[in-house]
Design goal:
The structure is a homodimer of 357-residue chains.
Chain A lengths: L4 E2 L9 H7 L9 H18 L4 E7 L1 H12 L5 E6 L2 H12 L3 E6 L8 H10 L5 E5 L11 H11 L4 E5 L11 H4 L3 E5 L9 E7 L1 H4 L13 H8 L10 H17 L1 H21 L3 E3 L7 E5 L5 H12 L1 E2 L1 E2 L9 E4 L6 H16 L1
Parallel strand pairs in A: 1-11, 3-4, 3-5, 5-6, 6-7
Antiparallel strand pairs in A: 2-8, 7-8, 9-10, 10-13, 12-13
Helix pairs in contact in A: 1-10, 2-10, 11-13, 12-13
Chain lengths: 357, 357
């Protein structure tokens, strides 16, 4: 079967070297071989997250990772600030409310984003807030926070606010420094820059986050505690998804070899090239300014569904449509995954041609 | 690398046809293609579980599946009966207690099992019990409940007791009929008879179980509700582990083609052959009677660790040691997975030789 070109913002195409890693013979998880492998995996994850602390490997998708972190690191009724500006950040607000957190929301329209001043204003007016969930890049719109500024400023003024970052569509894609910026817990998923099948997710736990875990919650497979204390011994509390983690390790090796800036630069080049092309073809970038992870765009007066369908059916190029309230109003193209300039050019060429007909 | 012979009771060796399925090009999960695939997957799961109701696909291992079911289907303080007779059933007792259920435990020594009379006695004396968690086969000892008798008798006398079954080491391995026996929710994991990498788990939801799910809990990714209501539309509430589910579908196709009794009979033949051989070599089967899924055994006066290590290092045959309080006291060999008479004979021959030296 001819492989399609996948330019959706995840799940991305899984390259052969990852599949080969997943196919390696299984090892038992109570063995020195596993311990050795798991130690190396954790080192690779630390590089990927740019942290010297622990990164926990879990089964699940991005949403599970964020919910693992929220339910493990926040306490019932804790006052938590969650800015929402798209489908995923809205999801964290809803989960926070339904799971018994005292959520303060900064609600912004789809396509816009929250800035450091708005966040500090809310913190100044609500001294009881001790937690925050930030969506670095809203996959539903491409809007991307100025995370370095927000995290550094908040930590400078409010050291005790625990900062959790959904970096699902930014880690390995655009510059990200967990420790240097001061993020306490960061979440990344397998099916984005890590080039793996959906099904594993990773949560970093810095010292302030670790102090909120507890050995009394070790029986709960949906609490980070058991994974954290086991990881200290390079062990896993349950049957780990070892073969899937082989695939992750292969991708991490690639990040360690080529170094993160290689990927960050590639994303930026692809985003710039694609946006110039869309603008030249009469399209509009949405939002503006957008982060580099993906481009959301539209062509006024054109049937976006037709562009989407023709790309898919006639050219075997898969991009994404809008989500939530933007369904039918934008298209989205990712600048990460197992793709490069060739795929991006083919996509842009296809769009330009469809637009002109 | 030469593939080892894996005779541990999971994770099992993943055969090539499963890896090939996992390697198929990714499809987006909001598409008619996914809907079609997911519908077929669910049909395959229904056959595998022998149920006409819904089977939910989740990321995680067996423990996550059982905890998903327990936290979604039981209410806080609900009186739940959990017989314990090994490491895994003990885990469900501990999780039940720590998660706020009112647990009544029937505690039996490792290697023994609970029978229908003991269960009915407890139910007769505690009319408030409305839930039960049964571990069909204790992977830590091989002890296997007479599930048909227990479930049928309990349902005949106590229709309102919701029966949950950990069938992680029995579905696809020994005879199991969810609907005919009356089990309300049954759990199976990918890395046992389904021949897949660890990381996905499946929970069936019969009508009585479904009536305990709620649309008000749709925000919780660790509650079965959102998956259940989405599955009714052949959809998935989050990014599904699509490629891993391709692997599961390939295994299910194999079960549908060869039919379940083929696998049940194979397990029985392998277990009988292996046990006769162990007895002939002077070994003792533990417990007696054991279920067919795996054999736990020992050789009085012999160093079991040495048998385990020599099999692994000299013959590349991997079996399992004891778990929990049986660590160092038994060895365990599985009669399921990507194995047959050849591997079982090689293992038995290896053990006999090591014993004689």
């Amino acid at each position: 079967m001819k492989s399609k070109i996948i330019l959706t913002p995840g799940p991305v195409r899984v390259p052969t070297f990852v599949i080969e890693a997943i196919s390696k013979p299984v090892i038992h998880h109570r063995s020195p071989e596993f311990e050795f492998f798991f130690k190396e995996l954790q080192e690779g994850l630390r590089y990927f997250f740019q942290t010297s602390h622990t990164v926990i490997s879990l089964s699940g998708t991005g949403t599970h990772g964020v919910e693992y972190a929220m339910r493990s690191l926040f306490r019932k009724n804790e006052k938590v600030l969650i800015p929402s500006f798209g489908k995923f950040s809205e999801r964290w607000v809803e989960y926070g409310k339904s799971s018994g957190l005292n959520v303060t929301e900064i609600q912004k329209p789809y396509g816009s984003r929250v800035n450091v001043k708005e966040i500090l204003d809310v913190l100044d007016r609500n001294p009881g807030i001790t937690g925050m969930v930030l969506t670095h890049c809203e996959t539903s719109t491409g809007a991307t926070l100025d995370l370095e500024e927000i995290v550094s400023e908040v930590k400078r003024k409010y050291k005790n606010v625990l900062i959790m970052v959904d970096a699902i569509t930014t880690l390995g894609i655009i510059p990200f420094y967990s420790d240097a910026w001061g993020a306490d817990s960061v979440i990344a998923a397998s099916q984005k820059s890590l080039l793996n099948p959906a099904g594993t997710v990773f949560v970093s736990v810095g010292p302030a986050a670790a102090s909120r875990l507890s050995e009394t919650r070790m029986q709960d497979a949906f609490d980070l505690s058991c994974y954290y204390f086991a990881a200290m011994q390079n062990a896993y509390p349950y049957t780990p998804p070892t073969q899937l983690l082989y695939g992750i390790k292969a991708a991490l090796d690639c990040f360690q070899e080529k170094k993160l800036p290689f990927f960050w630069n590639r994303t930026h080049s692809l985003a710039r090239f694609f946006r110039e092309g869309i603008s030249a073809a009469g399209g509009k970038i949405f939002p503006d300014p957008a982060g580099d992870s993906l481009t959301a765009f539209l062509f006024s007066g054109k049937d976006l569904k037709e562009i989407y369908t023709k790309l898919k059916d006639e050219l075997s190029i898969e991009i994404a449509e809008g989500q939530g309230e933007l369904k039918g109003k934008i298209l989205r193209v990712a600048h990460f995954g197992d793709i490069g300039m060739e795929e991006t050019k083919l996509c842009l060429g296809g769009i330009s041609e469809i637009i002109q007909n």
